[in-house]
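Notes to self after the call with IL:
- keep both proteins in one doc
- input above output, always
- annotate only the second one for now

Protein 1:
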Amino acid sequence: MSPGLGPETLAARALVTDIVVAYAMALDACDWAGFRALFEDEIEIDYSSLGSIQTTLPADAWVERCKVLGGFDATLHKVSNFAVVMERDAARVTSYVDAAHFIRHEDRELAGFACGTYVHELRRHVEGWKVSRCAFTVAGYATGRAAFDQAFAAARAVHARQEGRP
């Protein structure tokens, strides 16, 4: 046992770390109900380092936005190096993420890789811990930013067709 950490604190740390893992795995499985279950009803999102959004929005809207990942043939969000700060009924989990995105497009295999840091802030509720804030800060793109953007453009097009949009 870590010095100064009792069993209840260690159990809470394990729970919030498991939620970050569940976040990544739900994205990869396109388990949108499971993904939604991780959040409070309104959440703060900061993906501005990707050129994406930084806002507070309903969790349902965030889930809808993430469904673009269903346009990929596969994604793998690998999280590691967890640093957890607990304060009563609040937790902040910082972790590394390696996000790999794969799609076959026009007879080519496209791959977009982004590596960086997640910060998930959670609050304890009667029914358990819920994510109130999620931020992703890019450290770099293993295949370059252009390859990442190209893979996402192809996935957006596939997702639009899946949704019945032109």
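Protein 2 (the one to annotate):
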Amino acid sequence: AVDPAWGHASAAVVTALEQEDLPRLLLDALRTVGPFERACLFVYRGQANPIHVYDSFATPAEKQGLINYTDSTYVLNPFYAAYQRGLQPGVWRMRALAPDGYVKADLVESYQATAAAGEEIGYLTHGWPAGMEELCLALGLPDGECGEISLSRRTVEGGFSDADVAAFEAVLPFVAAVFARYWRRARQRHLASTQESAADAAFAGFGGSLLSPR
């Protein structure tokens, strides 16, 4: 049986297909399928830095963690590596994409991350919430791009069950179609925003090793 909450939430998504607020409403709909504590949306495009689309991260430190991810540690991410190998659309547990020993400690030290044996993927991006288990919804997009909706729960609370995975798989066709429709209109806006952010960061750090604070 379809949960009435999903029916109402998905209807709100459909009415907002052309609006900037759609990613938030899409996450609201997904919460009726199964609870999660954190969520973020990215689009991967070849070997370029991922585009940050939306997130529900709460603190300034966590927001900085997102920046560290898109600037640096995305190259360590098992999802990104799987995308480079031709990952198919679907619902994926992060640990299924990250076999034991996936990341070497000496490699992690070259990025904005710290090796952490207790983490699901063996490391933690600086600022990223610790002790989380991730479920990834991979969304096929035109021209070889791939959308990712990453949902996180605390590992100590049990993570995601097989029933959870099945429930998200059941709504994946709707989610993928909605996001693809949204992305056709929003892509250029997000690309422009990403380029501006990179330029701002470059100016902010320019000459830092040569100039005085003044």
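Annotation: The chain has a mean pLDDT of 89. The CA atoms of residues 13 and 25 lie 6 Å apart.
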